[in-house]
């Protein structure tokens, strides 16, 4: 039976660069080469009693290329044999499949087959932690068999809102536009409200120079809110609150806005980071907003 071309190629590489390549080669390649060296010796008769017992296999165990001994299966994201055999790069573990994903390749990159999880359904573990899918859960389970971890339920664990990125304190000169952002993770998804300290009213209220926006993301189960104040006035100065809430809990993050008049700016001796060049400012502004839609 003819050998696959890739194996012959690797074998030549092995002979040609033995001393140079082997020590620094990635694990999966070393494993392939190891297999080439062993080939023809081992597969004649299987002696299970001579097999080492694999330990700490995070993706479970599979039979080796001779279909004899057990060895660690490949993890999510590791390179694998596309024909689902265990001949060169290895075989994917439980709940994983070897797939060629040419999806997000940079120019000139050659697609590599990778172990890909068959599920993308999040799970809630008995430890109260959310796992992106069964494969991630299985890795943790296999890493700590004594931890008595189990699946509590499908879907993420319920979680009170957590601020992933808070609004930051801002200062600027009257007439400029300012934006506060607030990124929140929660399950179920949180709602976000903006308020100014000292005023109970929910923003934007009926103030035409204030606007708010919300969007899901950037990560799963996150929502991001923005508060924009156009043409800031001295009266806008104060502390602003991002208030996020779901049925499990709530969280608040504060940030202050300091508004200087051009005269005050002169006195402090501070300078604005950008020169007062209208064209440039307009451009920067529109770029910034593009991200929000
Ligand atoms: C493991 O967890 C189950 C429930 O999740 C419990 O009934 C059992 O007693 C636990 N076993 C140990 C050894 O902690
Ligand atoms: C003031 O606002 C302008 C326009 O929004 C912005 O480009 C600039 O970086 C801000 N200055 C400071 C000090 O934050
Ligand atoms: C800022 O100070 C300079 C001199 O230091 C003066 O010429 C200029 O008019 C001042 N600008 C404002 C807006 O007060």
From TrEMBL:
<dbReference type="InterPro" id="IPR011390">
    <property type="entry name" value="IGFBP_rP_mac25"/>
</dbReference>
<dbReference type="InterPro" id="IPR003598">
    <property type="entry name" value="Ig_sub2"/>
</dbReference>
<dbReference type="GO" id="GO:0001558">
    <property type="term" value="P:regulation of cell growth"/>
</dbReference>
<dbReference type="InterPro" id="IPR003599">
    <property type="entry name" value="Ig_sub"/>
</dbReference>
<dbReference type="GO" id="GO:0009966">
    <property type="term" value="P:regulation of signal transduction"/>
</dbReference>
<dbReference type="InterPro" id="IPR002350">
    <property type="entry name" value="Kazal_dom"/>
</dbReference>
<dbReference type="GO" id="GO:0030198">
    <property type="term" value="P:extracellular matrix organization"/>
</dbReference>
<dbReference type="InterPro" id="IPR000867">
    <property type="entry name" value="IGFBP-like"/>
</dbReference>
<dbReference type="InterPro" id="IPR036058">
    <property type="entry name" value="Kazal_dom_sf"/>
</dbReference>
<dbReference type="InterPro" id="IPR036179">
    <property type="entry name" value="Ig-like_dom_sf"/>
</dbReference>
<keyword id="KW-0393">Immunoglobulin domain</keyword>
<dbReference type="InterPro" id="IPR009030">
    <property type="entry name" value="Growth_fac_rcpt_cys_sf"/>
</dbReference>
<keyword id="KW-1015">Disulfide bond</keyword>
<dbReference type="InterPro" id="IPR013783">
    <property type="entry name" value="Ig-like_fold"/>
</dbReference>
<protein>
    <submittedName>
        <fullName>Kazal type serine peptidase inhibitor domain 1</fullName>
    </submittedName>
</protein>
<dbReference type="GO" id="GO:0005614">
    <property type="term" value="C:interstitial matrix"/>
</dbReference>
<dbReference type="GO" id="GO:0005615">
    <property type="term" value="C:extracellular space"/>
</dbReference>
<dbReference type="Pfam" id="PF00219">
    <property type="entry name" value="IGFBP"/>
</dbReference>
<feature type="domain" description="Kazal-like">
    <location>
        <begin position="93"/>
        <end position="159"/>
    </location>
</feature>
<keyword id="KW-0964">Secreted</keyword>
<feature type="compositionally biased region" description="Acidic residues">
    <location>
        <begin position="280"/>
        <end position="293"/>
    </location>
</feature>
<feature type="region of interest" description="Disordered">
    <location>
        <begin position="268"/>
        <end position="293"/>
    </location>
</feature>
<keyword id="KW-0732">Signal</keyword>
<feature type="signal peptide">
    <location>
        <begin position="1"/>
        <end position="21"/>
    </location>
</feature>
<dbReference type="Pfam" id="PF07679">
    <property type="entry name" value="I-set"/>
</dbReference>
<dbReference type="InterPro" id="IPR013098">
    <property type="entry name" value="Ig_I-set"/>
</dbReference>
<dbReference type="Pfam" id="PF07648">
    <property type="entry name" value="Kazal_2"/>
</dbReference>
<dbReference type="InterPro" id="IPR007110">
    <property type="entry name" value="Ig-like_dom"/>
</dbReference>
<feature type="domain" description="IGFBP N-terminal">
    <location>
        <begin position="39"/>
        <end position="118"/>
    </location>
</feature>
<feature type="domain" description="Ig-like">
    <location>
        <begin position="161"/>
        <end position="258"/>
    </location>
</feature>
<dbReference type="GO" id="GO:0005520">
    <property type="term" value="F:insulin-like growth factor binding"/>
</dbReference>
